[in-house]
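Minutes, project check-in
Item: structure for the 213-residue chain
Input as provided by the requester:
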Amino acid sequence: MFTHRLLKKLDLEAVQMLQQDVCAALEDPDILQPLSEAELVHILRGNGVILGVFAEERLVAFRALLKPEADEEEHLGRDVGAVDLSKVLYQEISNVHPHYRGHGLQKLMAGWIMKEVDIAHIDWVCATVMPYNIASLKDKFGQGMYVYALKFKYGGKLRYVFGKNLHVSRQFGDEQVAVSMQDTERQQQLLAEGFVGTELKPAGADWAVVYKR
């Protein structure tokens, strides 16, 4: 039913239209930070990759990876402890048209797009997620990414900073604590003490992040 390929500059209009459809269907617009035309063009010119999924030649989903500038002021590599910022990729936006949700496309795209990454030249993959964006949080944890920071980014927006070292597996001791996602201060305290967030789990009517070190 679905096909996928890397997108090119000629796909720009289709990507923008899909972003508009996805944003229009959101109850909370703050959940998603769409990529601007300039950002999309920057990626499509070789500063990353965008993978698209098609249903009968119609673009119905896409996922983007960005190669950020090493001197970027708020570089996520600093938040996760990356040694060489030139070897960091960002997982940017992931969009699925509302009519095509429920097919596991976000998870499939995560696997497909990472096959396009030359890990000989990349050490870390990073991403930011808004608290209570449950679908995106599950997506990041499902890829084996961990929370390394919870801080204000990009003009004062509270975000989890996720990272995954592509060459070194993180090892943990016996210390583990689950904290309500509402408790920003406690989570930040644990992160400052060397804990990282490893999974998301329901906690009654709330959600909790499990921290380990």
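Outcome recorded: The radius of gyration is 17 Å.
No further action items on this chain.
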